């Protein structure tokens, strides 16, 4: 996504009415589908409008160019991922390490249909390295936060190390789901089992220590 020309620096229109917001959502969904299928460069504004069942003028009303579509879609995807990790952290206190492991291992695969054009957008972005690093740090911070809520007392650095391992497992599971990584029919279940055992071993002692401390305080 080249952003050097002055015309491409124009930003998307933020609709105030519900009907406008719905139209923008439909246009972004169409753009996401096309970019996931064909890549950013091969996707045209005319194709986006056609896929969304909209007139080309409607698309240009909200987005002056494809650069604006891509930027809006990238921010939309990043917000979805952020909200998902934030919601998980709020739930983590009521989860066992095994339950948290099950949610995390499938999280990227569950999110993929909603952010499927993210890889294409990152690849096309002029600051792709910065965007990839930001996305990775967002994921690591989200996983680490959930780990520390689930197992109070877990050291921040240790949580970060565990998060890196879990994120790699999550990427492998996504690859298996998309058939981009070597897999067999039973391999995903084996990966889930491995992730459960790992988090049980790493978070279980902290969780039990916290429970014991709480029990002592109530006596």
From TrEMBL:
Gene3D superfamilies: Tetracycline Repressor, domain 2. Signal peptide: none annotated. The keyword DNA-binding applies. InterPro entries: Homeodomain-like_sf, HTH-type_TetR-like_transc_reg, HTH_TetR. Residues 44-63 bind DNA. Keywords: DNA-binding. Residues 21-81 form the HTH tetR-type domain. One of its GO terms (molecular function) is transcription cis-regulatory region binding. PROSITE patterns: HTH_TETR_2. Pfam families: TetR_N (PF00440). The keyword DNA-binding applies. It comes from the Bacteria. This is TetR family transcriptional regulator. The lineage of its organism: Bacteria, Pseudomonadati, Pseudomonadota, Alphaproteobacteria, Acetobacterales.
